[in-house]
């Protein structure tokens, strides 16, 4: 499956919920957010139907995001259902790690292959402030459990303000070295102004080689994070929405005034 610029699209990122158990300052406004109604969320069966038809079109890599995917009730079952779809070669998840200790073993057994865990600082007080109440000890235990059960690779996503030479970023980098993990530095982005850059240590933000398409928790295919286009499967059908999204994938990102990180998945 190729877009207009001859980029091979084989990566589907699926937001399974817009809910999260943290309130990170760079993701959620202080006044809170308007959450989707439960009945507007795609069912597991609908998500698997999307995966199955997407695989038929050439998708081989699937990543589950949120919100925080581990707060979606029955998430282990969904992982198993997607893992059972023939043609899904790589199944991964991005998580804040708070609930990972509880679910890591079951997720691994269900077929999840890789995890990216968000960690922006090693300082307990800074983490508590940044996440508006989160406990960094929960994340550390989640990381240890992920290592124990055998996820490989385990990547740490670290949001930076200006540079990966910032003290908190350097501390996270040293932590990953000690644990044998990989680190990805993600510059703080702004959807409305169109501020984004290439991920250090990863492939995100590289428009010329972008191979991804996104599915929102309510069924909207998005061709680009930094773009307002969205084609819902409930209006166009799965194949129709997917084809439109791929056909409308822009050469590069611009701005997104209709979506937020917490409901698209980053």
CATH topology group? TIM Barrel
Poorly predicted regions are none
User: Could you say how many structural domains there are in total?
Assistant: 1
Shape: globular
Number-wise, the strands total 9
**CATH-scheme architecture:** Alpha-Beta Barrel
Spatial ordering of strands, largest sheet: 6-5-4-3-2-1-7-8-9
Specify the helix fraction band: 25-40%
Question: What is the assigned CATH homologous superfamily?
Answer: Aldolase class I
The arrangement of helices and strands along the chain is EHEHEHEHHEHEEEEHHH
- Separation, N- and C-terminal Cα atoms: 22 Å
Number of helices: 9
Described by strand count, sense and barrel closure, the largest sheet is: 9 strands, mixed
| Percentage of β-strand residues | 15-25%
What structural category do the secondary elements indicate? alpha/beta
What's the level 1 CATH class?
A: Alpha Beta
- Whole-number radius of gyration? 17 Å
Can you give me a brief rundown of this structure?
By secondary structure, the chain is α/β, with parallel strands linked by helices. The protein has nine helices and nine strands.
How do the strands and helices of this protein lay out in sequence?
Elements: E1 11-15, H1 44-56, E2 61-65, H2 75-83, E3 90-95, H3 100-110, E4 114-118, H4 124-130, H5 136-149, E5 154-160, H6 167-179, E6 182-187, E7 212-215, E8 220-222, E9 231-232, H7 233-236, H8 238-247, H9 261-264
Parallel strand pairs: 1-2, 1-7, 2-3, 3-4, 4-5, 5-6
Antiparallel strand pairs: 7-8, 8-9
Helix pairs in contact: 2-3, 3-5
């Amino acid at each position: 499956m190729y877009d207009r610029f001859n980029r091979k699209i084989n990566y589907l990122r699926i937001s399974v919920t817009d809910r999260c158990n943290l309130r990170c300052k760079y993701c959620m406004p202080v006044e809170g957010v308007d959450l989707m109604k439960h009945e507007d969320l795609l069912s597991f069966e609908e998500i698997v139907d999307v995966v199955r038809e997407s695989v038929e079109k050439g998708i081989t890599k699937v990543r589950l995001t949120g919100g925080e995917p581990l707060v979606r009730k029955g998430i282990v079952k969904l992982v198993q259902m997607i893992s059972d779809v023939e043609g899904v070669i790589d199944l991964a998840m991005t998580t804040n790690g708070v609930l990972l200790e509880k679910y890591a073993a079951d997720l691994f057994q269900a077929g999840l292959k890789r995890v990216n865990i968000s960690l922006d600082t090693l300082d307990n007080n800074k983490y508590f402030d940044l996440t508006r109440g989160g406990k960094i000890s929960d994340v550390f235990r989640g990381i240890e459990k992920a290592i124990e059960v055998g996820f490989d690779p385990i990547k740490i996503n670290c949001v930076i303000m200006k540079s990966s030479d910032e003290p908190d970023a350097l501390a996270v980098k040293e932590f990953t070295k000690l644990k044998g993990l990989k680190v990805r530095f993600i510059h703080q982005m702004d959807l409305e102004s169109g501020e984004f850059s290439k991920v250090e240590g990863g492939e995100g933000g590289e428009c010329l080689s972008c191979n991804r398409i996104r599915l929102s928790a309510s069924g909207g295919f998005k061709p680009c994070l930094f773009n307002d286009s969205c084609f819902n499967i409930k209006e166009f059908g799965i194949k129709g929405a997917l084809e439109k999204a791929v056909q409308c994938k822009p050469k590069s990102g611009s701005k997104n005034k209709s979506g937020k990180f917490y409901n698209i998945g980053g």
